[in-house]
Amino acid sequence: MTDPSLARRRFLLGASALGAGALVVGCTSNEPAEANNGNQVAQGGEDNAKPGKEVTIGFSAPAADHGWIAAITKNAQAQAEAFEDVTLEATEGTNDVNQQIAHVESLVSSGVDVLVILPHDGTALTATALEVMDAGIPVINLDRIFSTPLAYRCWVGGDNYRMGVNAGNYIAEQMKAKNVANPIIGEVAGLDNLPLTQERSKGFKDALERAGLKLGPRVAAEFTVETGERQTTNLLQGNPKLDALWNHDDDQGIGVMAAIENAGRDEFIMVGGAGSKNMMDLIKADSSVIKATVLYNPSMASTAISLARLLGQNKGVADFAEHEIPAFLTAYSAVVTKENVDDYADVGFDS
Question: Which family is it part of (predicted)?
Answer without folding.
Answer: Belongs to the bacterial solute-binding protein 2 family.
